[in-house]
Amino acid sequence: MPALAKPTMSSEDVTTRISQIDWERISREMDDRGNAVLEDLLPPVECRDLSDLYHKNDLFRSQVVMARHGFGREQYKYFNYAVPGLVRTTRALYHDLLRC
After folding, report:
1. pLDDT higher than threshold 80 for residue 7
2. DSSP alpha helix (H) spans, 1-100
3. d(CA 47, CA 9)
4. Which residue has better confidence, 92 or 49?
5. I want to staple 89 with a disulfide (CB 3.0 to 4.6 A). Which of 11, 39, 63, 84 is the partner?
C-alpha cells in the first residue's frame, strides 16, 4: 500500500509562490477576460489539506446554511480566530489583486 502524502500546508511555500506570480500577466487577463488562473499556486495535496479543514468544526465560529434563508442548498463557515496559517497567507493575494 502506498504511503499517504504528508500534509504540506506551509505558509512559507505559498508566500514564495505568491511572490513569483507574474502580476502583469494576471492584470492583462483580468482586463481581457475578467478572470485569471494562478497556475500551481496550491498543489493538489494543499488543496486537499484545505478542503479537509471544513470538517473540523472546532476551527469555525459559525456556519450559514443557505437553505434556511431560501438561497439554495449551499453552506459556508467562518473560521475562528486565529485563522489557519495557509488561509491567512493566501488572503494576502487580495492586496496584490487590488493593484491589478
Report:
1. no
2. 11-19, 23-33, 44-53, 85-90, 93-98
3. 9
4. 49
5. 11
Burial group, residue 48, by CB count within 10 angstroms (0-12, 13-18, 19+): middle
Residue 3 is assigned to a structural domain of this protein? no
Residue 38 maps to a domain? yes
Cell 477576460 sits on residue: 33
Range of the domain at 39: 11-98
Q: Which residues of 88-100 are buried (b: 16+ CB within 10 A; e: fewer)?
A: ebbeeeeeeeeee
- Cα separation of the two ends of the chain: 46
Q: Which residues pair with 60 in a beta bridge?
A: 79
CA 70 to CA 23: how far, in whole Å?
Answer: 39
The total of structural domains in the chain comes to 1
Its pTM stands at: 0.67
C-alpha span between 61 and 70 (Å, rounded): 22
Q: Is residue 32 part of a domain?
A: yes
